[in-house]
From TrEMBL, chains A, B:
It comes from the Bacteria. One of its GO terms (molecular function) is dipeptidase activity. The lineage of its organism: Bacteria, Pseudomonadati, Bacteroidota, Flavobacteriia, Flavobacteriales. SUPFAM superfamilies: Class I glutamine amidotransferase-like. CDD domains: GAT1_Peptidase_E. Its EC number is 3.4.13.21. Keywords: Dipeptidase, Hydrolase, Protease, Serine protease. This is Dipeptidase PepE. The gene is pepE. InterPro entries: Class_I_gatase-like, Peptidase_S51. The keyword RNA-binding does not apply. The keyword Protease applies.
Length: 235, 235
């Protein structure tokens, strides 16, 4: 039985780190007191230690301890033994680079497919898709591949943002970018707004939170889906 | 003598394609009646033909003819013979992928270093820097490298955008992204606002347009520079 939470963001406006999700995480991680944290995405260039400290404080509120994967001598072994995994946000390219460098892609896939609950936020959600080709992040390092964990049969666009109709800026809107993605790729993309998440249980994929999500399918007009929609039909 | 224009955007708000630059381009391309256009960045997935058509119309206003590089059997040969080059905007990853695929990186560098005037806008400006690691674009294809033409000794961030202090969106600001870039890279980055461009003549690099540009140097607080500032001291 697979258990995955793919969240658009760690933090919603005006709220603390992971605060909006904590109640759900208490249930989601009910079978473990310790979470293995992967801090590789390094938001704002935070060190692995400093990032792990933030996560420790958040999870202490639901009585979970947290250990950073960088604290283990053998990260592959740490993943095998983990009873709960959290991959935090930051830069998706930095995260992907480091996962490949430490040879962790297959180990992560195995752990999740063997039933270890996986929580991803932002960059940690991007890597749940087929590729990281719909990240919003700046490509500040060159990873050996854009292929990701493929835990779901589509791509994720976290922090999905509707076009600002008042803007005079000529850069592309998010929707234009995803449309360009579909000139070169065929898989669906789920635009997850901040505060939304996908809850995967085995092959069921349900949209959670109070907001709709925007679905981009190849050669189709984008459309909105309501919370509680079953999304496992997308592929 | 090198002649390069590195423009933030092709189009400013409320104005036609290249319109704000046409007077300068007339002078810049004064020694040629024909421009070789590289349409590889394919904005909105436009075909090479359709994109070239837009550029033809714009340049006809200053009595220049335009031919797309895709119209030539041998693009390397076309670059060698060109008397003026324009690389348009779109997706920087798509552009870079196609330049590598067609083996044009060295030919472009040689042409520019031998004095062929080069105009870049947006993605076509990104590739003038050392790497494409400060592009704003979505990584919709995987290029064989992030290394770019290195026509200037720093990186470009086109369409530079100041933080929106009213936003409730939790995604990173442009400044935060460039700061993260400097956790892994040391070269300066020039944030070029829409309507600004750099004019390179041999080793002189002057900021043009009416707006200031934002300079990000490794381990320094970002700062603004005024139009007409000589930027060749950055490295």
């Amino acid at each position: 039985m697979r258990h995955i939470i793919i969240a658009s963001t760690s933090t919603t406006h005006g709220s603390g780190y992971l605060e909006y999700l904590l109640k759900d995480l208490e249930l989601f991680f009910k079978n473990t007191e310790e979470i293995l944290f992967i801090p590789y995405a390094r938001p704002s260039g935070l060190s692995h230690d400093d990032y792990t400290q933030i996560v420790k404080i958040a999870f202490s509120k639901i009585n979970k301890t947290v250990k950073g994967i960088h604290e283990y001598e053998n990260p592959i072994d740490a993943l095998k033994k983990a009873k709960g995994i959290f991959v935090g946000g930051g830069n998706t390219f930095v995260l992907t680079y480091q996962l490949y460098k430490n040879n962790l892609i297959t180990s992560l896939q195995s752990a999740v497919n063997n039933g270890t609950p996986y929580l991803g936020t932002s960059a940690g959600s991007n890597i749940c898709g087929l590729t990281i080709k719909t990240t919003n992040d700046m490509p500040i390092v060159y990873p050996p591949s854009f292929n990701a964990l493929a835990l779901v049969p589509f791509n994720i666009n976290p922090h999905y943002l509707d076009p600002d109709t008042n803007s005079k800026h000529m850069g592309e809107t998010r929707e234009m970018r995803i449309k360009e993605f579909h000139n070169f790729n065929t898989q669906p993309v789920i635009g997850l707004r901040e505060g939304s998440w996908l809850h995967v249980q085995n092959d069921s994929i349900i949209l959670k939170g109070t907001l709709t999500a925007r679905i981009f399918e190849y050669n189709q007009i984008p459309y909105e889906v309501e919370p509680s929609t079953e999304l496992n039909i997308l592929k």
